[in-house]
Specification:
about 300 residues; mainly alpha; globular
Length: about 300
């Protein structure tokens, strides 16, 4: 009896091994096909972006350029003449550098996902052409997040020299860990893309412009962009309230990476909350994308 059971177990193991070997080449082939289709979508979006590169750069640079020019160049010179120069302390340019990079990442991520989705989900239903590629529908949504993350990293690279060279008072930048800086940039860019996907799939196309006034502007001003999170210690209720804002962790992460002498959150907390933001917003965005496309 024991011998019979042993033979049956061996035959079952053999059949499982044979089925795995048979399915393995097919799985690898399907994986390569998905990878090629994913890369094809990225190349298509890059080609479109290359044709619109100048408007993209103007959109990214205009807001931080004007903000830096007024608050870190004009106001300090007004102060030399005896005029009042608010928000122009000796370290304001240093405080502002990581915050403006975080804003550029966030705006670029939302603009790269939410705005195109408002058109693709419109009357013409352009999204139907995109989902016909040989990819799972969820992977099409993830491609949008990855492409927006690439744009966000470029946006941060564009803003950095502006925020570094324009202020009258020299900006103090010291990178202690390039690995941590790279991790913050990538995670922040992915979180911004996931936020854009969530907004683009949750809002009707005709209401997408309203979102920038109702959602994007408030989370920017409450995102520790113009001040470190630690400076809110006298407003404890607000200090706790802004912890639900993912831009806080983008700003604090870049502040910890670029200006570690300023007060900032612990590195482990920043990275953990950025990954949690990606998981939560990404899940909400993908579910919304599936609902809008399949439904």
């Amino acid at each position: 009896m024991i011998e019979v059971e042993r033979n049956q177990a061996q035959s079952a193991d053999t059949s499982h091994e044979e089925s795995w070997k048979a399915a393995s080449p097919q799985s690898r082939l399907q994986g390569r096909m998905y990878a090629r289709a994913f890369g094809g979508l990225l190349l298509r979006d890059l080609h479109v972006l290359r044709r619109e590169l100048f408007p993209f750069m103007i959109r990214i640079a205009m807001n931080p350029l004007l903000f830096l020019f007024i608050f870190t160049y004009v106001f300090p010179h007004m102060g030399e003449g005896g005029a009042v120069s608010p928000m122009s302390g000796p370290g304001f340019g240093t405080i502002l550098l990581p915050g403006l990079m975080a804003v550029a990442i966030m705006f670029s991520g939302i603009a790269a996902v939410a705005l195109p989705l408002s058109q693709e989900f419109g009357v013409t239903r352009e999204i139907d052409d995109r989902v016909m590629c040989p990819l799972p529908v969820a992977a099409v949504a993830l491609e949008k997040v990855c492409f927006s993350a690439m744009q966000s990293i470029v946006a941060a690279a564009i803003v950095f020299p502006l925020a570094y060279y324009i202020p009258t008072v020299p900006v103090q930048v010291h990178v202690q860990s390039w690995l941590f800086l790279g991790a913050v940039l990538v995670l922040s860019s992915l979180a911004a893309g996931a936020l854009g996907l969530t907004i683009g799939t949750s809002v009707k196309p005709q209401q997408i412009g309203l979102i920038f006034g109702v959602v994007v502007v408030p989370i920017t001003f409450l995102g520790c962009v113009y001040y470190p999170w630690a400076y809110l210690n006298h407003l404890r209720w607000l200090q706790i309230f802004v912890l639900f804002n993912p831009i806080v962790y983008m700003s604090e992460g870049l502040r910890a990476a670029l200006t570690p002498t300023l007060p900032h959150m612990p590195a482990w907390l920043i990275l953990s909350m950025l990954m949690a933001s990606i998981a939560v917003l990404g899940t909400l965005g993908v579910k919304g994308f599936l609902r809008r496309v399949i439904g």
